[in-house]
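REVIEWER CHECKLIST
Item 1: Sequence provided? yes
Item 2: Single chain? yes
Item 3: Sequence as submitted:
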Amino acid sequence: MSIAKTIKSFTLPAGANTSGDVRGLGSAAPIEGIKAMRTKEEKQAYARRLRDNWKAAKKLLTDDKISEIQAIIKTHGMKISVTGYMCVAMQMRGQELAGIPYLDAKTYKGWKENGFQVKKGEKSTLSGITWIGVSKKEPIENAEEKPGYCFPKAYHLFHRTQVDAIGAVAIKAVA
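Item 4: Structure as written out by the authors:
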């Protein structure tokens, strides 16, 4: 099967959550950032929700689906994980948004770098998950690996329907 056909025929496996509630907060609810959280319990619940969403996406990945996603990632030169791709794909399908994750859904900065501006008043309805590594300051003797841990962090994405080309914005303003 050609890569173009693979991209067009991308579908979620049977039993996938298509409600768009990948973040555990409802499909339209913005994900609350960790900075807005005050208590240790709120921060732990936030991290637990993100970990649960990551695990749910990972469970849906079959060998065929992994190969399909890897082909898409390689074709477009993306630097993302298969599970990260799946997390965003699940949300896009749940919200009935067409396209390929990370090509048709980018961060604010990603759209700016590609010559687009997020429309005024648009809110992010998609989010991705990244893992932040933290190493401890004091090394343990005779340890082969550096001690530390990883924690998940959400970032917001905007769909292509939420942006305008920067040149088009300037033309509209002049006209």
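Item 5: Key structural point noted by reviewer: Confidence is low (pLDDT under 50) at residues 1-30, 169-175.
Item 6: Recommendation: ____
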